[in-house]
Write a structure and sequence with these properties.
11 helices; disordered N terminus; elongated; mainly alpha; 468 residues
Amino acid sequence: MRNPASNSFGRRILSVFFALIFFAPQAFAQGPSLETSDAYIKLSRQSENILLKELDLERYYIQYWIDAKKDPKFRRIRYFLAQQAAAGCSLGQNITLASEYGRHLSYPERNNDGTLKRAYSLAIVSGSTAATASSFELLSNAYTALQNKRKKRDPKTAANEFVRRVKEIDGLLLERNRTLAACPSGRLKDALAEEGNLLKHLRDWCVSDLIDIWSDVKSYQAGNSVFYALDATANWIIATSFMLTIKSVDRSSYSGPGTFLSIPADVILMVSAPLSTKVSTILSNRAKKKMGRMLNEEPHEMSNETDESLKRLDVLTKGLDDSSRIMTDTLAERIAVSRTWSNRCVDFIQDREEDLRHLEKVASQQNIAGPIIGACFLEQDVADTFAYYNYSTRSKQTINAVAFSGTLFALTGTTANLGLTTWNYISEIKHRRKLKRNHQDPEELLKGRLATIDQLESSLSAKLRQTP
C-alpha cells in the first residue's frame, strides 16, 4: 500500500514543475518591476521638476507685468482734474475773446485792453497747468523707472532673468530626454515620451507669453512717456506764446511772433495721440524681435498643440496597467496639473478680450479726436498769423473779423475737448466697475493666475515628496 504523504509530495513537485514551464518565461520576459526602475523614478522626478520650473517662470513674468504696468497712485484722477482745469481756463479765454471781438466787429478800436489781457492771462494759466501736469507725470514715470531698476524689476533685468530661466528649463528637458532613452520600451515609455512633448509645448507657451508681456511693458511705458513729453512741450510753447501775445495789447509788434509760435504747438497736439500710439506699436514689435533674438526663437501660439498633446496622453494612459502604480499615479497628477494650467490660461485670454476691445476703442477715439481738436486751435493761430502779416496795413475791421472767426474755431475745439475728456473719464470708471463686477479686472485676473500657480505648485510639491 502506498504512503498518502508520498503521493501528496509528488503532486506538489509536479505542480511546481508545470508552473515553471508555463509561467516562468512570462515572468522573466517582464524583467524587473517598473516600480523599482531607477530610470523611471528619475524621469518622474525630472518631469515634476520641469513643470515646477515652468510654473515658477510664469509666476515671475506675471508678477513683473503687475509691477511694471502699475500706474502711480491717483494718476488718473489728478491728471483728469488738471486737464479739466486747463480746458476750463481755455474755454473762459475763448468765450471772453469771442464776446469782445464779436461785440466790436465794426469798431475794433473799442476792444477793451484789460479784457483782452485777462483773456490772454487765462490762456497762460491754461497752458501752464496742462504743461505742469504732463511734466509731473513724465517725471513720475522716470521716478518709477528708477525705483524698478533699484528693485531689479526693470525691462533689462527682467529680460536677462527670462533668458536664464528658459535656458535652465531647456537644459532640464534635454536631460529628461536622455533619461527617457534609457527606459525600457512599452506603453508607459510612450506616454512619458508624449509627456515630454507636452512639457515642451508648455515651455513654448510660456516663452510666447513672456515675449508678449515684455514687449507690452516696454511699449506701454514708452508710449506713455512720449505722450506726456509731447503734451508738456506743446503746452509750454503755448504758455510762452501767450506771454508774447499779452504784450501785443500794448505793442502790436508782439502779436505776429506770439500767434506764429503757437502753430508748432498746435501741430504737436494734433499728432501727440496717434504718434504715441505709433511709437508704442513700433517699440512693441522691436521688443518682440529683440527678445526673440535673445532666446534664439520666434514666438508662436501653443494652445492648440498643448490641447492635442493632452488628448494623446489621455489615450496612451488608458492602456497602462497597474504594474507600476506609483509611476502611473504621478504621471496622472502631472497631466491633471498641466490640463488645469492650460485651461486657466485659456480662460484668462477670453476674460481679457472685453478689456482689450475697450482699450482699442479708446485709443482709436483719441487718435481721431486728438487731431480734429488740435486742428481747431491750429486754424485759430494760422488765421491770426495770416491776419497780422497780410492785413497789418489794411482795415482793422478785417483783422478783427479774422481773429473773431479763429476764436470760434478754438471755442469749438475747447468745448469738444472738455466734453470728450469728461465723457472718457466717466466711461472709463463705468468700464472698470463692470470689469470688477464680472471678475474681469486685469489686476484681479493676474492675481488669479498667481493663485492658480500657487495651488498647482503645492499639489505637485506634495506629490514629489511622495515619489520614492
